[in-house]
Design brief:
The complex is a heterodimer of chains A (115) and B (113).
Chain A: E1 4-7, E2 10-13, E3 18-25, E4 31-37, E5 44-50, E6 53-57, E7 64-70, E8 73-79, E9 87-94, E10 105-106, E11 110-114
Parallel strand pairs in A: 2-11
Antiparallel strand pairs in A: 1-3, 3-8, 4-5, 4-9, 5-6, 7-8, 9-10, 9-11
Chain B: E1 9-13, E2 18-23, E3 31-38, E4 45-50, E5 55-56, E6 61-64, E7 70-75, E8 84-92, E9 107-112
Parallel strand pairs in B: 1-9
Antiparallel strand pairs in B: 2-7, 3-4, 3-8, 5-6, 6-7, 8-9
The chains are: A mainly beta (115), B mainly beta (113).
Chain lengths: 115, 113
């Protein structure tokens, strides 16, 4: 247990479904991140939230919609996904400070399969 | 963006030291060198980081070349649980987009009993 909890661990959804991935941390961190890890590809940074504000969206399609209601929780809302969106989705958190370099703590991920 | 170059894979024997190299010839003066590893079916975990001086912690040691253009992660006695993908990542010290953790392909370490 890393301190970052992701649910569900596995998710199978149809292309017309709407689902949400949840991430929760109680490490006192104030920055949270979504990453996507497809088979045989490096982890891709999708979204960055700092102090509950989205500060980066790395050209992610609009069918992925993040939400950060508070510094402990992060969601990724999914709708009208494609089979190529099947991947491991990882959440991470860190203590963000402009002049100090802190490590990230990752969750174990949600394995998403789009059918 | 500052980039790193790592071998795709390496093999080690159990209980022997492992030296994982990383080249980062375009590193800037404000880039930290971070190492993470990803065990099978898990998210990445922090291993170690440094700026100029060599660093030691309970997991590993980080040796940084004097010109900072390369570094080596040292596992002093590899165990089967150290089999993972190891990522060498440069992060800007002042945060913002340069401080984000951007992953490359890493080195897949196999440990033989």
């Amino acid at each position: 247990e890393t301190g970052v909890t992701q649910t569900p661990r596995h998710l199978v959804m149809g292309m017309t479904n709407k689902k949400s991935l949840k991430c929760e941390q109680h490490l006192g961190h104030n920055a949270m991140y979504w990453y996507k890890q497809s088979a045989k590809k490096p982890l891709e940074l999708m979204f960055v939230y700092s102090l509950e504000e989205r500060v980066e969206n790395n050209s992610v399609p609009s069918r992925f919609s993040p939400e950060c209601p508070n510094s402990s929780h992060l969601f990724l809302h999914l709708h009208t996904l494609q089979p190529e969106d099947s991947a491991l989705y990882l959440c991470a958190s860190s203590q963000a400070n402009g002049a100090i370099n802190y490590g990230y703590t990752f969750g174990s991920g949600t394995r998403l399969t789009v059918v | 963006d500052a980039k790193t170059t790592q071998p795709n894979s390496m093999e080690s024997n159990e209980e022997e030291p492992v030296h994982l190299p990383c080249n980062h010839s375009t590193i800037s003066g404000t880039d930290y060198i971070h190492w993470y590893r990803q065990l099978p079916s898990q998210g990445p975990e922090y291993v170690i980081h440094g700026l100029t001086s060599n660093v030691n912690n309970r997991m590993a040691s980080l040796a940084i070349a004097e010109d900072r253009k390369s570094s080596t992660l040292i596992l002093h006695r590899a165990t089967l649980r150290d089999a993972a993908v190891y990522y060498c990542i440069l992060r800007g010290v002042y945060g913002g987009s340069q401080g984000n953790l951007i992953f490359g392909k890493g080195t897949k370490l196999s440990v033989k009993p």
